[in-house]
Amino acid sequence: MDLKKINKLKHTDSNNFFLLSGPCAIEGEEMALRIAEKVVAITDAFKIPYVFKGSFKKANRSRLDSFTGIGDEKALKILRKVSETFDIPTVTDIHEVSDAAMAAEYVDILQIPAFLVRQTDLVVAAAETGKTVNLKKGQFMSPESMQHAVTKVTDAGNDMAMITDRGTMFGYQDMIVDFRGIPTMRKFAPTVLDVTHSLQQPNQSSGVTGGRPEMIETIARAGIVNNVDGLFIETHFDPKNAKSDGANMLDLSLLEGLLGRLTAIRKTVTGFK
């Protein structure tokens, strides 16, 4: 996959890691533009290729009363406005075959959630849009098995696939990143480390997913040292009051320092200037 083929993606010659970052869910226009503006300024300064991330709806919820979205078309229009306002690509996750063509009208990358990455019809529908497809590794899957998900995309005539590792289930309420899987998956496609979802603590008795955001930098540093192509970091200016995944998101005020330190590590690892 050639990153330069992603519409509006900047700094592709910098040799830095690329970044998928934004809120877990689109809660409204003002919050999305506020987060995007801040992340664009930071990534431009560090020459980090940047894709704005935001879910237009949340289908995988612990409880029936959990926040699922502000309306599909409304959220997708906000994603389009973010892209047009800051001239950056956007990514959102899809959950049903019918979502693929709809979301492809608004965003540049279609993301297949980890729980759904074995759903052939969904993967193929995303691939057939011609958009880049981000395949999140199932928490229950081996790194080697992601080759078959990538093959579904390429067999559908689309050479724009990437893999995102978001940890593997360890027991019932914890996620573990097995860094041995990074070089394995990089043989199949560019590989991203989803730092924040890897720190989730799902299946809590309250029905609200927990997390360990204090470990974000630890996991992100390890990913850069182990040559991940990109990082996935959900961020919000008020994580405690975010409507989804607030327990494991990075406070937006901490992003600049983190990306600066990660860029320095990347330079040490790769020798780029």
Automatic annotation (TrEMBL):
It is an enzyme of class 2 (transferase). GO terms for cellular component: cytoplasm. Pfam families: DAHP_synth_1. The keyword Transferase applies. Its main location: cytoplasm. InterPro entries: Aldolase_TIM, DAHP1/KDSA, KDO8P_synthase. Keywords: Cytoplasm, Transferase. Its EC number is 2.5.1.55. NCBIfam families: KDO8P_synth, PRK05198.1. This is 3-deoxy-8-phosphooctulonate synthase. It comes from Nonlabens spongiae.
